[in-house]
Amino acid sequence: MIYGIGDLHLDYSKKKPMDIFGENWLDHEEKIFENWKSKIKSEDLVLMPGDISWALKLEDAYNDLKKIDELPGKKIITKGNHDYWWESKKKMNSLGLETIFFLQNDSYKYENITVVGTRGWKAKDSEDFTEHDEKMYNREVNRLKLSLDSIENRGDKIISMLHYPPFNLDSSPNEFVNLMREYDVDICIYGHLHSEGHKYVVEDIIENIEFLCVSSDYIDFNPFKIY
Asked: Residues in domain Calcineurin-like phosphoesterase (predicted)?
């Protein structure tokens, strides 16, 4: 089985309470871990599209990553906008985590399913979209292309992980969707949206791609079965 859950926002230091987004965030870490342990088996794969830990440095994020590493299943993690601890794959792999694969400019094969992904970026029709955002946006599109180009044998399906929704604020598909369509991606999961932001969730089959939001509060802190 393949599951998805993003935006865990773990905080080993306990200095970043998430209940500012609503009472449902109270004890959210415990909810996630309990649901995870009751559902996920060692042979399952869990896709985690970003905002994993509030830590600012990799050595501080280790405490949160270790918790994830000790949970059942294999995990694939991509970067979110709050994952400031994210460093080179060499440094992250040197942590010695046994069940986590950090996805960056590459792909991952699970049975006959290929997983690709990148962070993505904010919608171009955002009021505060700047020239800097344009550069970041284009870089992220290129990183998704690098991930897709790394596929040697696509298998039965391609699943793409993005942190930001691949849609404009008016719900129209953006360049990330266009690129995924070119490579015949089958499923795209994303997160990032919390509380009032859920109004921007798009879940549908568009351009022959199934889109799913797996932000932790959107799925009630319960890993969602994707495939």
From this structure: 2-195
* Tokens read off for 24: 């449902």
Based on the structure, what is the number of domains in the chain? 1
Q: Give residue for tokens 């088996």.
A: 41
The whole-number pLDDT of residue 19 equals 65
What local confidence, expressed as pLDDT, does residue 26 receive?
87
Query: In this structure, what DSSP letter does residue 93 have?
Result: H
Q: Which residues of the chain register pLDDT less than 70?
A: 19-20
User: In angstroms, rounded to a whole number, what is the distance separating the alpha carbons of residues 16 and 1?
Assistant: 32
Q: How far apart are CA 133 and CA 131, in angstroms?
A: 5
Q: What is the pLDDT of residue 18?
A: 75
What CATH code is carried by the domain that includes residue 145? 3.60.21.10
- For residues 80 and 33, give the distance between their C-alpha atoms in angstroms, rounded to a whole number: 20
| CB contact at 8 A, 223 and 31 | no
Residue numbers of the domain that contains 188: 2-225
Q: Residue 178: enclosing H or E segment and its boundaries?
A: helix 175-182
